[in-house]
Task: inverse folding
């Protein structure tokens, strides 16, 4: 049986392929109900143990991922797994780093890079992808230069 998020759930983004992923802020705590099966945590330091399988991407607040190749690998894994598992992306506040990662994921799923920030702001959070360099990173991600 394929497990997925409730499309009406808080922080759930539908990608063009129909795949659902969730974004959230770790400071907000875990949402009530069903949890993730795979998580991608975008933090300056290792978040520690989770109750599910997870990947940590070293990513200081308001910045960009420290290892862009590793980030790209984790994104591809997350997109692949999201077809049959509940995948979440999270950082401290759930807006800048999480929004940036979701926008890059949307690019991988077919959203043109120049439209990805608007796509994530419309479907996830209106302030997603907070800084000018995060927005530039998303545009360049689509060009393969991230």
Result:
């Amino acid at each position: 049986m394929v497990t997925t998020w409730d499309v009406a759930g808080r922080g759930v983004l539908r990608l063009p392929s129909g795949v659902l992923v969730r974004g959230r802020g770790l400071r907000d705590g875990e949402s009530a109900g069903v949890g993730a099966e795979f998580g991608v945590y975008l933090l300056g330091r290792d978040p520690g143990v989770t109750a599910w399988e997870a990947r940590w991407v070293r990513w200081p607040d308001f910045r960009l991922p420290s290892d862009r190749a590793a980030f790209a690998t984790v994104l591809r894994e997350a997109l692949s797994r999201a077809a049959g598992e509940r995948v979440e992306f999270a950082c401290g506040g759930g807006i800048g780093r999480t929004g940036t990662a979701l926008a890059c994921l949307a690019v991988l799923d077919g959203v043109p890079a120049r439209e990805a920030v608007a796509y994530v702001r419309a479907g996830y959070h209106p302030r997603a992808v907070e800084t000018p360099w995060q927005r530039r990173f998303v545009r360049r991600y689509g060009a393969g230069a991230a």
Observations:
- The longest strand covers residues 20-25.
- Residues 68-82 form the longest helix (15 residues).
